Amino acid sequence: MKKLILTFSKLALFAILCCIISLRASAGEITGLRTGQGMDSVRIVFDASSDFHYEVFLLDTPKRLVIDVDGINVARSIENTKDKNNIIGRVRVGTSDGTKKRIVFDLQKPVVIKKAFMLSPQSNFNWRLAIDVNVASERDFASKVGLSHAISNGAKNKNTSSTPPIKTTNNENAKKVIVIDAGHGGHDPGAIGYSGVYEKTITLAVAKELKRLLDKENKYNVYLTRSTDIFIPLRDRFKIARKHNADLFISLHADSAHNRNAKGLSVYTLSETASDKEAEALAERENKVDIIAGVNMFEQSKEVNDVLISLAQRETRNRSSEFARCIELEMRKSVQLISNTHRFAGFAVLKAPDVPSVLLEMGYLSNKNEERLLRQDSYRRKLASSAVKAINRYFEDMKHKSLF
User: What pTM did the predictor assign?
Assistant: First the structure.
């Protein structure tokens, strides 16, 4: 009888352990951590496989930023994050109150917590918790220390901060949308080449060839901003990309220089300074409806609007840079590049806040040899083929990466 009871006890214990393991396995997990430093500020972003409860607060002696999370596991690998900044230091993962997980950042400077908000899955991103901290005086830091000043997404805390989900119509299985912009057109010829060829003619020819090759891939929906010799204002070009809910926007150009020896391909993305100015203009614009990813900005507070614009722009800039890297890697195999191939500027055509965008300067029409190449169908096909490989590479890489 004792043996039978002991056997049942062991079976019951085994069943309980299986339930615990099963519950732990079914719980979501915080899988990644990224930080980005601004002027006297840091944005911390956690990537997670599911929604979860959080409390964010400060502790003193020593100075620490603490995030208590409940209903989710935390990958120890986040302790190995090496992002450089001079505000937050080492990160540690432990437990609090037995069930909660605690993430602790050592602080190198006194800070205050400006915002903490959860974003639901969007495009290639899963759930994300974003936390903004700003450098502060010792007095301001001391006034915000303790759990009573925590920012939480739970109903128990009056300092709740939440952000509505950003709507998206694209998903992992849907065809990606690419908008190709042939630079210049109509009364705007662009650069005039060594032999008199117009930039607008070259860009349109490459745009059509790129669309043809992408259509053959049968996994993209491809649109041209212009398919004939017409003029389109710069801002209307990226509006076309936004209208189609584009996953990528590529503006094609061919450069010109006083130095006729200048040659080589380059790729531009929006500079942080330029996008910050654009964010300011966007935030102040009267007509804010559908300014980013389907969110009606009239329905949100100014603080939430600023957060949404900032987050969308940061993600867009980083995705644009990732695509520029793919272009550089693929183009290098077949055509000549200039030094420092990936460059940054404030081109108006790149300023869509939620569409990864690049401007591709395919070469110098002012250079006799490069202009001759750009007039050749075979060379334009080579450029377009390399661009297709870069696009394929970008979307493949995005399956495995979480960028800001």
Answer: 0.57
